[in-house]
Amino acid sequence: MTPVISTLDKPLTATGANRQLSWLGRIDPRIRILCAAAFAVVVVACEDFAPLGLAVAISLFLLSASRLPARRTMMRVATMDSFILFILLLLPFTVPGEPIFTLWGFAASWEGLWQAIEIALKANAIVLALMALVSTMEPVTLGHALHALKVPEGLVHLLMFTVRYIDVLREEYLRLKQATKARGFRPGTNRHSYRTYGYLVGMMLVRSLERSERILGAMKCRGFTGRIPLLDRMAFGPSDVLFVTGFVLVLFAIGAMELAYGAY
Amino acid sequence: MHIVDGALSNPVVIAGAALTIGGLAQGLRKLPMEKIPVAGVLSATFFVASLIHVPVGPSSVHLIMNGLAGLVLGWAAFPALFVGLLLQAVFFGFGGLTVLGVNTLLIAGPSVLVGLLIRPRVQGAAPRPAAIWAAIAGGLAIALTTVFVALALAITGDEFLPAAKLVFFAHAPVMFVEAMLTGAAVYLAKQVKPELFDDFQGALQ
Do A66 and A94 fall into the same domain? Predict the structure, then answer.
């Protein structure tokens, strides 16, 4: 299958073969998905800085083990942070408590600041762990692993089709964009620009539908009856057992720290 | 608008996840295996559309187009947009894992609502009235999304109330842009390929 989203530099192979660079990438995909989910649930439940600090440390460790390009990944996480920045910046001013300083007559409280830091730590720890554990997967493998985890077949196939065509349609978009550019279109804040973008999206939809008609025709030609068999077999090996044991221990450590420090 | 892990209270997160599972089940019921290729290609289209940045004054906004998704896909917009958000969370790090349910509900809920309300009016109409209905759908979907985001924040705690209000007003220009774009997109699609709105029938003779 084609590499998903071209903006990603991942160890993707054209054949979809499972060629992973790191030991973490060789752990059973099902295990990695479950671990990421369990990690997210445990971290969200924490409220104290000690367990959250440990969680961030674990995420950074996973990130280094995953051999994802560190800088690029950090940039992505920073982009996510920029989305929530204004909510976090508002929090110190809206949570009542002991004031730190006042800005234009609004008092910032320590409690609000702590809450903002807490949210930032949780969000970053979880996203980093998710990227380290799951985004290193070939998207097709993600689909197969989700299927093995009893996610409905329809949803898995929808996921795989979406992944397959994102790149194709992105190129379609770039072609249309180039066509507008060749005709002297310069985007601005005006009615003409919005109409042009609207037509562009509309044209993409029209071409997509026509493309999907051809796809379905080609699939029927090859005997598509409304079911696609998923052939991937996943094996649970000794290194997987080791990883799960270690990960569960770490989760218990985070939970124990939360109970020990968060109790007072 | 992506909500991240850790920001919302547990009841909000759990309710969001439960409602999203319900929406996915209903959406998949309306999506037999034969229609998956169409839905997948359209889902990829909306994923790519969400990467398009449109200038607004000195800044730019990225499109969401959940109104248009609802008009084209109906109930199937729910699984289609869920898949997009899942891919964004996993591969781009936008959003989060525990809030995936809430985020899906915030984007796909309005999409389906708009689809149910306005899609029948677009289906039979001539291009111009269809475009006007579509513009209403595009603006309404974003308005509902921001209201839902504001509600999710407000239910979580009073301390988020100012942020919730800010989210709503900051999205006023986005509402306008999405309304314009959705109207134009439907106007073109209605002229070039009217069967786009025919319950997928165009792709399934």
Answer: yes
Residue A186 in tokens: 């310069």
Encode pLDDT of A104-162 as tens digits.
Answer: 766 778 888 888 888 889 989 998 999 889 888 888 888 889 988 989 888 998 998 89
ipTM of the complex, rounded to two decimals: 0.89
- pTM for this prediction: 0.88
Give the closest-approach CA distance of A239 to chain B in angstroms. Answer: 24
Between chains, do A227 and B188 touch, taking CB under 8 Å as contact?
no
Residues 6 or more apart whose Cβ sits within 8 Å of residue A9: A69, A72
Tell me, which fold does domain B10-191 have in CATH?
Arp2/3 complex 21 kDa subunit ARPC3 (1.10.1760)
SS3 (DSSP) at A48: coil
Same domain, A45 and A129: yes
Cα(B170)–Cα(B151) distance, integer angstroms = 15
**In which element (H, E) is residue B193 found?**
none
- Tell if the CB–CB gap between A94 and B184 is shorter than 8 Å: no
Domain with A156 in it: 151-221
Picking from A75, A215, A203, A171, the residue whose alpha carbon sits closest to that of residue A131 is A75
- A48, A172: one domain: no
